[in-house]
Design brief:
heterodimer, A: 114 residues, mainly alpha, Helix Hairpins, 65% helix, B: 593 residues, two-stranded antiparallel ribbon, 2 strands, 1% strand, globular
């Protein structure tokens, strides 16, 4: 298997986490988090991918046709659901925090400021 | 078999549908009854599992010709007991929250029931991805529950909690991708069998590092623990009870599970557990304890005590063998009961005394003296008193460490217990007896105004506290040591292989002895000494305060304050530091092996 997908995943998570650490705006930070998550999509899909095979749907084909690994496809689907939930929840929290504090800069939002 | 998961999920769904039409206290009653029902189911499972592990294949997808495609739940005595304890904590928390949440649609109960179902699923799951899914359900409900009150501090705490833990989830997913690329399966037993063929594979070690880091973020080990103090301190008290008592230790149990069930054949992972994880546990126990002493926000103090005791639990996990795992189980339950009771006391103070700042509360707790007695008892138990479930757990861990010639591990356990117990005793003395007057101290700026819904009767709130403390004292639970060690031994022998092979007869359970009987007294004495020092500072000679405290403790405390700055970017940077630490030790372990 090629190393390109792994390198891509590593790069995506590296830039995503850099973004999370340096972000000055929560919506931007949530975007960066989504970038980190795309790394997991790439990694999972590349593990299950087989060159020259078809999608694991055997409605019109014989079940012995070479297909990509359906387990990983299921994992990625679950991953997408998780990502959507987290993003929605985070955006809702950000909206509420903006209502209460009037800012969405993580540097200025500190629980228990001394 | 899947009932502990299915029942709360179903009841939660029904409550969500009809919650709008239910009057008054009915959702409270339904939720509490569901939790009690789960306790009963888990207890029955524990009784059945004593003969051998129970295996349930979803949709009856049993392994065929050595290929494991199905997803299994495996119930051992240990898991069933933990599940029963968690459900019991939920029942107590529902009782404590009686009439706490007035909203019309019972969202709180629905979220808590899903939270309960997720924890049960996490306990029983025997498939790496299924394990991740329950972990994630647990996380998302926890995020939502933290911010339930929709006020500024809870929202900020919840944001930090969500961002850090989500990065942990992604790390776990990455680890799953790596291990699947290597083994091509996800069932724990099948995974272990496949990993045993290549015990020196660096990919397996990398996968373990990523999954372990993800779980340690949730389990709040140093340096991944920063979110915990923010989140536990601001969540509603009944939710904090569950967070500290069950969620954090459960994540650590999850780490133990993936280690013993799947990754143990990999030599470098064993080294990693023996050295790095043990060292992390010891550091966490001590630093968490010191940070705990530093707090004046009572719930934040308790949150740091959870960090410290999480470290002690991690020590129990890292030491191999049935004795220390048995210690882990007993400590898990004992700590959960005590910490649950303490967060309830904090909730009582928030509701009846109208504040949570320790200095502001000085002496204001006198009318609530039963809560004061409960807090003192809990402080004594946390401080390592020589009775109760926590003591049983730490004795087993001590003995396991001594048997390996690693007696020095004891120091971390004693220090962690003494600091946290001392902090809680100090709080009890100050709030309920009005001790420790220091002029000008309150002027240092109290934390934000907080209070929780007042008009609940004291006896109703004290009832679950009493129940938890009586259980923590170990009354009515005979032979805790034997049960814990037996369950742990069977878990180690059976749980991993249960899905792929018939199990062998149960291993004999030998309870180790050999720790000096004075150790618990040393720990408790140290706790009392710390409390007395903090409360009696006004009488100490000025030179002592200047020289000793300023020179020795101020730098440590300042460093602790500076790092816990509440900025989520810094927390994520710390996570990277921890991950790097893990990777370096893994590389060293691989190189050495």
């Amino acid at each position: 298997m090629s190393y390109v997908p792994w390198a891509t995943a590593a790069w995506l998570s590296a830039v995503g986490i850099y973004g999370v650490i340096t972000s000055r705006h929560y919506v931007h930070l949530i975007g960066c988090l989504t970038v980190v998550q795309s790394a997991t999509y790439v990694a999972l899909l590349s593990v299950g991918y087989r060159f020259g095979s078809v999608a694991p749907i055997f409605y019109t084909r014989s079940p012995s046709t070479p297909a990509v690994d359906p387990v990983l496809q299921a994992l990625v689907l679950t991953d997408i659901v998780v990502g959507a939930t987290i993003t929605a929840l985070l955006l809702a929290l950000t909206l509420q925090v903006h209502k209460k504090r009037g800012t969405v800069n993580p540097e200025r939002l500190r629980p228990f400021r001394q | 078999m899947p009932l502990p998961v299915a029942v709360p999920l179903l009841v939660g769904a029904v409550l969500l549908l009809v919650g709008k039409f239910l009057p008054g206290r009915i959702p409270d009653a339904v939720a509490a009854a569901t939790a009690v029902l789960v306790v009963v189911i888990d207890a029955k499972l524990a009784a059945h599992a004593a003969q051998g592990p129970l295996v349930y294949w979803m949709g009856n997808w049993q392994p065929r010709a050595g290929v494991t495609l199905g997803i299994a739940f495996v119930v051992d005595e240990a898991q069933a007991i933990l599940g029963a304890f968690i459900a019991l904590l939920f029942a107590a928390s529902f009782a404590f929250a009686w009439g706490y949440f007035e909203d019309i649609r019972a969202f709180f109960h629905v979220l808590m029931l899903i939270f309960l179902a997720a924890m049960q699923g996490f306990c029983l799951s025997h498939d790496l991805f299924n394990f991740f899914v329950w972990f994630e359900v647990m996380s998302v409900t926890a995020f939502a529950l933290t911010a339930y009150r929709l006020e500024a501090d809870p929202l900020e705490g919840a944001l930090n909690f969500t961002v850090t833990n989500t990065i942990g989830s992604f790390l776990i997913l990455g680890g799953i991708a790596l291990v699947y690329s290597l083994a091509g399966m996800l069932d724990f037993g099948a995974l272990a069998r496949s990993l045993a063929h290549e015990p020196g594979d660096p990919v397996a070690v990398a996968a373990f590092c990523m999954i372990a880091t993800g779980l340690l973020i949730k389990g709040a080990a140093m340096p991944f623990h920063f979110w915990l103090a923010d989140a536990h301190a601001v969540a509603p008290s009944p939710v904090s009870v569950i967070f500290s008592g069950a969620m954090v230790p459960l994540a650590l149990f999850g780490l133990g599970k993936i280690y013993w069930d799947a990754f143990q054949p990999v030599a470098a992972v064993q080294v990693l557990m023996d050295t790095t994880v043990l060292a992390l546990g010891m550091t966490t126990a001590v630093i968490g304890g010191l940070a705990c002493l530093r707090q004046r926000h009572l719930k934040r103090l308790l949150a740091f005590s959870t960090v410290s005791h999480g470290g002690i639990l991690l020590i129990g996990l890292a030491l191999p063998g049935a004795a220390s795992l048995g210690g882990f189980l007993a400590y898990f339950i004992g700590h959960g009961l005590v910490k649950g009771a303490l967060f309830m006391v904090a909730g009582i103070l928030l509701a009846s005394a109208g504040g949570i700042d320790e200095l502001w509360l000085r002496g204001r707790g006198r009318p609530l003296w039963p809560a004061g007695i409960a807090m003192a008892v809990a402080g004594i138990l946390l401080g390592g008193a020589p009775f109760g479930l926590m003591d049983c757990g730490s004795r087993l861990m001590d003995a396991a460490a001594a048997a390996r010639g690693e007696d020095w591990v004891l120091i971390a356990i004693v220090l962690g217990a003494a600091c946290t117990g001392g902090a809680v005793l100090r709080g009890a003395g100050r709030i309920f007896l009005g001790l420790g007057e220091m002029p000008g101290e309150e002027a240092r700026g109290p934390s934000e105004e907080e209070s929780e819904k007042p008009d609940r009767p004291l006896w109703l709130m004290m009832l679950p506290v009493l129940l938890l403390l009586i259980l923590a004292l170990g009354t009515g639970l005979p032979q805790v040591d034997e049960t814990a060690v037996r369950a742990a031994g069977r878990f180690l022998a059976w749980d991993g292989v249960a899905s792929i092979a018939p199990v062998t007869p149960p291993p004999p359970a030998a309870v180790p002895t050999g720790v000096h009987p004075l150790v618990p007294w040393v720990s408790l004495g140290l706790a009392v000494l710390i409390a007395a020092h903090d409360l009696g500072r006004a009488w100490l000679p000025r030179t002592w305060r200047r020289r000793f405290e300023r020179a020795f403790f101020e730098p440590i405390f300042t460093a602790i304050d500076r790092t816990h700055d509440g900025v989520v970017g810094d927390y994520v940077a710390w996570i990277l530091v921890g991950l790097a630490l893990f990777s370096v030790s893994a590389a060293a372990a691989l190189h050495a092996g």
